[in-house]
Automatic annotation (TrEMBL):
Keyword terms: Pyridoxal phosphate, Transferase
Domain of life: Bacteria
Record flagged with keyword Methyltransferase: no
Organism, as annotated: Nocardiopsis algeriensis
Full protein name: Cysteine synthase A
Amino acid sequence: MDDHVCETIGRPDLIDLGGGLVCLRFESMKVASATAAVRHLLETGAVEPGDTLMDSSSGIYAYGLALACHRYGLRCHIVGSTTVDEGLRVQLAVLGATLEQVPPSDSLRFDQSRRVRRIRELLREHPDYHWMRQYHDSVHYLGYRAVADQIAKELDPAPLTVVGGVGSGASTGALATYLRERAPDTALVGVQPFGSVTFGSDAVADRDIIIAGIGSSIPFGNVDHTLYDVVHWLGFEAALAGSVDLLRRHAVFAGLSSGAAYLVARWEAERSPERRTVFVAADTGHRYVDTVFARHAEAAAPEDLGPAAVTDLSRLARPWSRMEWGRAAPPPQAVHTEG
Ligand SMILES: Cc1ncc(COP(=O)(O)O)c(C=O)c1O
């Protein structure tokens, strides 16, 4: 029996979708990461019960941190983006977490850097607050060790390919790092939106998708580019097609980054039948009912979609591109230099 709902939600399920495709399904992915991070900070004396933990979040990290603070008796302050919806807002309030949302900007991609500016202001006003820095502090890798153990145990001994959207980079980076300790041939495929600096697609505009938890307009310390073998970039319509097909064909109701990862994983799995291809489904579909699932009639069939192979970032093009990243260093615009 679990001691707290953090443990329950922090434990994903593995679903065999057939054809070598496996869905790693989270109800809300960052609960595992935030809980382990907070536990580590308490154990090392970096924070104490009663302290205030603070971070910026577009949604699922806020929920994870609020649950972790609830469990360990800490206060939680979130600087949220405009994507924090009513369901989460109300839960945060009842859980005792405080939320401030940055005002909407014309271009949603700038929400991220605005939120960081606001965090810096808050730190000047409250030097005692602990900034979790989910995008930069590798403490956020720790919670995925148990997930990697679960994958290794349930899927052993097939060679694995892990596919997942890259936001902070913690989930895919940690899963590959921990799985490679046992199986160095584990492949890692990152999924990106267009318009993101992380893997250099910032010159290709697609402003709708950058707020869905993957991609970034600023460099992140937690993205270790040298872990990724392949990167795919998908536009909104392709991700929508993936989300709708994941529900229609496999009855898995998951979000937009999950749909993008599923579409990519299907494509990779068909070309590597000797491998198990595990894709990360980070959250459920509820947040995306109006923007994605209500548009199911216009969703393309996955069979009709495929990536353009590119060897140079200047050739990236919508709706879908794929590049052998080859564990290369970050592009200049994604180099993280702040402490
Ligand atoms: C819905 C969703 N999918 C994927 C990710 C990417 O996870 P990570 O930050 O571990 O790279 C996030 C991160 O916020 C997310 O919210």
